[in-house]
Amino acid sequence: MSLGQGDTQKTSGGAIQRESPRAEGEAERPTIELFIKASDDCGSVGNCPFCQRIFMILWLKGATFTLTTVDMKAPEVLKDLAPGSQPPFLVFNGEVRTDTNKIEEFLEQALAPPLYPRLASRYMESNTAGDDIFLKFSAYIKNPNPGLNDLLEKKFLKSLAKLDDYLLTPLPHELNKNPNDTREVDISQRSLLPGLTRYLSHAYTQEQFSNTCPPPTEILWAYHTVAKFLNK
Q: What is the Cα–Cα distance from 112 to 105, expressed in whole angstroms?
């Protein structure tokens, strides 16, 4: 599966080919290949937030790249390129990179202005506001011990509330534009996580998010296979 900005066409493997037009005199674009988890039926992208993150970064950068979905039931490609690793992994000009955090840092440096937009957060707090949500969610949904269920649920909800608070708090540059921006929220609505709800609603209107997100059925299936059903 090949992706980038520009025209779209289907390949024989059901992939999408999108090429970014290169301006006259522009330096040769790097050769980029991204390998991510395939869905259970191998018909689409699989449920992997780390894969989606790198997928979105490349899309937002406007890079031209080849996307390969890896069948995790028969991941032969991993044996040759990245033995012992799990998707996502990146091949950039022939060099394999397998650490998600390091891939993100590398892409921000390698795909830099003026050819590519800067994506790094303006504020360090933005990098940590929701950094424990996936960990807390995984611990909660995979928990086999009924006695820990309430505790793990509270920890998960607390991590969501932390992100919600951050999303409802105006950032310094926003306050500079509008000093009266207090974003007050009815206390009765706080349990509904209004900041997070608004954030996700906006995310689904962006093609970089909606087109890299696995189908809902794939997400449900992925967690159905690992979720622990508790009998109290």
A: 11
DSSP of 167-185: HHSPPHHHHHH-TT-----
Contact indicator for 120, 108 with CB cutoff of 8 Å:
yes
Which two three-digit tokens encode residue 175? 């306050």
pLDDT bucket at 76, cuts 50 / 70 / 90: confident
For residue 63, give both structure tokens.
């890079």
C-alpha distances (whole Å) from 120 to each of 61, 104, 212 are 11, 9, 19
- 9 and 17 Cβ atoms separated by less than 8 Å: yes
- What's residue 172's pLDDT? 82
Extended beta strands in 82-167, E state: 89-92, 95-97
pTM of the model: 0.80
Structure-token pair, residue 56: 């979105």
Torsion on CA atoms 194, 198, 204, 209, rounded to nearest 10: -90
> Which residues are CB-contacts of 38 (< 8 A; sequence separation ≥ 6)?
44, 45, 46, 69, 70, 71, 72
Q: Under a CB-based contact definition with an 8 Å cutoff, are residues 9 and 180 in contact?
A: no
Tens digit of each residue's pLDDT (9 = 90 or more) over 155-170: 999 999 999 999 999 8
**Which of 123-137, 146-160, 166-180 shows the lowest mean pLDDT across its residues?**
166-180
